[in-house]
Design brief:
With 273 residues, the protein is α/β, with parallel strands linked by helices. The protein has a single domain, classed as P-loop containing nucleotide triphosphate hydrolases (Rossmann fold). The chain has helices spanning 14-17, 64-71, 95-101, 118-128, 133-146, 162-174, 192-209, 220-226, 244-251, 256-265; strands at residues 21-30, 41-49, 53-57, 79-84, 87-88, 102-105, 180-184, 212-216, 229-234, 237-242. The chain has a six-stranded mixed beta sheet, with helices on both faces. The chain starts with 13 loop residues before the first helix and ends in an 8-residue tail after the last helix.
Length: 273
């Protein structure tokens, strides 16, 4: 993908950009039912650097999607803190700014698509924000071109493939100009071709536009091929965080799948590289 409509000059060097923290969780605890003893998140602490691509892996029910929703203030901690660019997600006065900073793409694109025409759907949030028409037109066109769906701009979303629909959802989020994208199992319902299309788009956003990406996924190959660091969650705890080579060194295993299995089966401990 060579088109870069949002790029204003060359993007900053990733090494320099990634020195700045954009997302922080501090001893985060959360239960969906306060009467139950089991925590969906049990003392999670981590940081995500600006411009980084972090994949979060774990079995169903391990808390990875719950963590994702805390970074967008959809959920608030029972105890502990979450900061987005230094803003406390528990601060009601900062919710608008936080959700402008962190955009979310969910598993089922049909749950995010609200209009009957692609370009109208991409423009939906901008209209609600009162963005001036000329700027809105530019943002919508740029976002659709970036996501590779410009040719479908006058089509009805329900006539598109799953991968195309998900890229419509991504374009709608990117039109808001977020600094960070959270993908909550965004490719889980797609066929292999759709998954490839969506991840190519996400890779482009991260590498070419400097958008921070946190991808909640169960696809090992996505995490292994695209991420700077990989976080492994087990039963509400962040058991390990590191590059693939660091996770391999920690476990003495070769390949992400083998390292993941060893970390997931361990009783306690891990690396926070």
């Amino acid at each position: 993908m060579g088109y870069s409509p949002f790029q204003r000059g060359a993007p900053p060097e990733r090494e320099t950009q990634m020195e700045e923290t954009i997302l922080t969780a501090q001893n985060l605890k959360f239960r969906y039912d306060s009467d139950q003893p089991v925590y969906a998140l049990d003392g999670v602490s981590t940081e995500v650097k600006r411009g980084e691509f972090v994949a979060v892996l774990g079995a169903n029910g391990c808390g990875k999607s719950t963590l994702a929703k805390h970074f967008n203030a959809i959920l608030l901690p029972e105890s502990g803190k979450v900061y987005v660019e230094g803003m406390d997600t528990a601060d009601d006065d900062k919710i608008y700014d936080i959700r402008q900073t962190v955009g979310m793409v969910f598993q089922n694109p049909d749950n995010q698509i609200v209009a009957t025409v692609v370009e109208e759907d991409v423009a939906f949030a901008l209209e609600n924000l009162g963005v001036p028409p000329e700027e809105m037109r530019r943002r919508v066109d740029d976002s659709m071109k970036m996501a590779g769906i410009y040719e479908y701009r006058e089509r009805a979303p329900h006539n598109l493939s799953g991968g195309q629909k998900q890229r419509v959802a991504i374009a709608g989020v990117v039109a808001m100009r977020p600094d960070c994208l959270i993908l909550d199992e965004a490719t889980a319902m797609l066929d292999p071709r759709g998954r490839e299309q969506v991840m190519q788009t996400i890779h482009y956003l991260n590498r070419n536009m400097g958008i921070t990406v946190v991808s909640i996924t169960h696809y090992m190959e996505e995490a292994e091929q695209l991420s700077d660091r990989i976080a492994i969650m087990v039963s509400g705890k962040l058991r390990a965080v590191g590059t693939l080579s660091e996770l391999e060194a920690l476990t003495g295993e070769k390949g992400l799948e083998n390292a993941f299995i060893k970390i997931a089966e361990a009783r306690e401990g891990g690396v926070n590289a």
